[in-house]
Amino acid sequence: MSLQNPNKKIGIYYDWLEADAFYYGWRFGYVPLPTFYQGHKNTTMVSPVFVGQSVIEIRNLDFVTNYGSEKASDRFYVDVWIFARIKFKIGSIKTRRYTMWIKCGLELPLVVNGASNGGFRATDCDVDF
């Protein structure tokens, strides 16, 4: 995932970062991410890897139906949330900390024995403070 800072004068301190993966509202993975400073006009790559650390309870027929149709299409829809505590640097001044939420809806290919029926599709994410 790429985090972009398009601003020409403001840097960003990422003091705390974590990524959570959800399947139809059920969190199945959590990954802490490294902290870093991102200068102005900069793009930084982060690579959360989710291993499915939690069991997802099947509570209704809609969940089973959605899972079955996604499995048949070889594409799964997962939401990834990135939570961050950030500070901005403007010249030599650092602001107070802010909490930032980034939500990305991903369409992921089903991988069987190391092969898939297509690649990952890039998506834009929503950012809130």
UniProtKB/TrEMBL annotation:
Subcellular location: Membrane
Pfam families to which the protein is assigned, alphabetical: LEA_2
InterPro entries per UniProt: LEA_2, NDR1-like
Topology with respect to the bilayer: Single-pass membrane protein
Keyword entries, A-Z: Membrane, Transmembrane, Transmembrane helix
Top-level taxon of the source organism: Eukaryota
Cellular component GO terms held in the UniProt record: plasma membrane; plasmodesma
GO BP terms in the entry: defense response to other organism
Keyword Transport: no
Domain spans labelled Late embryogenesis abundant protein LEA-2 subgroup: 2-100
Keyword Cell division: no
UniProt-recorded name of the protein: Late embryogenesis abundant protein LEA-2 subgroup domain-containing protein
Organism annotation: Acorus gramineus
